[in-house]
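Ops channel
N.P.: pipeline sanity check, posting one input/output pair.
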């Protein structure tokens, strides 16, 4: 009986192995290479645009894109289940060590462009600029600014003076960047409306006259306004533009990066090289983000 069980087990394992090999051969027969790309919601529109354009450059490569947040993409990279992780924040030392422990490979970072983290209000909001200090007082636990009137603003037609806080979920790289660079690592105030994606932040602000939110500049619509931002009261405020990010005047700019396990090889390397090319960087600019350097159309 024991021998029969062992034989049966070997047969089952053999079938599983053969099925796996069959899938691999089937993929090889089609000549299609699939690159798994996951992570930042800030970058998901850009990543999808890259994938569509690159399909014309390399018809034999399928780039499968999904979002979920920088933390989700990084977690997948740590497990070795994606080829490229998109992130609007840097990997933490603990995440790098965990990836090395799990996969035996050290994550490789490639900066692919920049983003001005925009502060959004409703298009009818009369406010045009804000300071980093005021944002800290609006969003942080224990912050003193809770009403628009405390900023000298009256919202047209609004029944309430309370500021509606729109934020991101904690797995978001945008959330972590805002917490680190605006709140000085203080906790967020309770009661914010935490959205799963960058687009959802802007949509909620566009439908809520008393709301304020933060999201990538590439998600701007005619129904919202992006505020100019000053570092401190009395200092000049700057709009989130390509020029103001390149000359380091806009105070809430950040790099956008992708991560691979070890140095990229084969089709993954070709894809990343293309992202850094003029054509790939032109796509960065066309989707509302900031290329590494000026590109011509």
């Amino acid at each position: 009986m024991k021998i029969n069980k062992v034989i049966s087990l070997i047969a089952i394992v053999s079938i599983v192995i053969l099925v796996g090999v069959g899938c691999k051969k089937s993929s090889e027969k089609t000549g299609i290479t699939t690159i798994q790309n996951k992570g930042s919601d800030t970058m998901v529109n850009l990543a999808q645009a890259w994938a569509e354009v690159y399909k014309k450059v390399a018809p034999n490569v399928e780039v499968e894109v999904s979002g979920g947040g920088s933390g989700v993409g990084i977690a997948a990279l740590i497990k070795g289940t994606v080829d490229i992780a998109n992130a609007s924040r840097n990997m933490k030392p603990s995440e790098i060590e965990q990836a090395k422990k799990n996969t035996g490979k050290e994550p490789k970072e490639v900066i692919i462009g920049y983003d001005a983290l925009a502060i959004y209000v409703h298009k009818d909001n009369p406010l045009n600029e804000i300071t980093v200090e005021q944002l800290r007082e609006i969003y942080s636990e224990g912050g003193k600014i809770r009403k628009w009137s405390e900023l000298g603003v009256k919202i047209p037609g609004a029944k309430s003076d309370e500021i509606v806080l729109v934020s991101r979920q904690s797995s978001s790289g945008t959330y972590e960047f805002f917490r680190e660079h605006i709140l000085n690592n203080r906790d967020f105030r309770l009661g914010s409306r935490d959205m799963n994606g960058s687009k959802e932040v802007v949509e909620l602000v566009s439908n809520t006259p008393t709301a304020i939110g933060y999201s990538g500049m590439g998600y701007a619509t005619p129904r919202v306004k992006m505020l100019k931002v000053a570092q401190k009261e009395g200092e000049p405020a700057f709009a989130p533009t390509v020029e103001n990010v390149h000359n380091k005047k806009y105070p809430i700019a950040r790099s956008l990066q992708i991560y691979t396990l070890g140095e990229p090889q084969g089709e993954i390397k070709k894809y990343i090289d293309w992202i850094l090319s003029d054509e790939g960087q032109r796509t960065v600019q066309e989707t509302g983000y900031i290329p590494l350097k000026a590109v011509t159309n």
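N.P.: looks fine end to end. Residues 115-253 form a domain with the D-Maltodextrin-Binding Protein; domain 2 fold (CATH 3.40.190.10).
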